[in-house]
């Protein structure tokens, strides 16, 4: 299975997926940390995470798959939501809480 197929399968098989540097417990960059905090504040109970520092193939190919150059990258219901700034803005507007609730109830 190609790395692009692995990424696609991960994104399509889980309602909420965060590709990040580090783990939710030990984020390895400030952007990943802030994104995890926003998701937790929005009520995420269960999300899949992929530590791109542990998988260089995913780290190299995810920007091509998503057409988004930076990390972290949040996908909800198979759709790219964006990175830290977008996730933070969505949280502040209340939209992230709605997206998370819909994804978790599906």
UniProtKB/TrEMBL annotation:
Pfam families per record: Glutaredoxin
Check the record and name the InterPro entries matching this protein.
Glutaredoxin, GRX_PICOT-like, Monothiol_GRX, Monothiol_GRX-rel, Thioredoxin-like_sf
Q: Which SUPFAM superfamilies match?
A: Thioredoxin-like (SSF52833)
- The Glutaredoxin domain covers which part of the protein? 16-81
The upper taxonomy is: Bacteria, Pseudomonadati, Pseudomonadota, Gammaproteobacteria, Lysobacterales
Tell me the domain of life: Bacteria
Keywords, in A-Z order: 2Fe-2S, Iron, Iron-sulfur, Metal-binding, Redox-active center
Question: What name has this protein been given in UniProt?
Answer: Glutaredoxin
- This protein's gene is called grxD
Q: Which PANTHER family match?
A: GLUTAREDOXIN FAMILY MEMBER, MONOTHIOL GLUTAREDOXIN-S14, CHLOROPLASTIC
Which organism does this sequence originate in?
Answer: Lysobacter soyae
- Family membership noted in the UniProt record: Belongs to the glutaredoxin family. Monothiol subfamily.
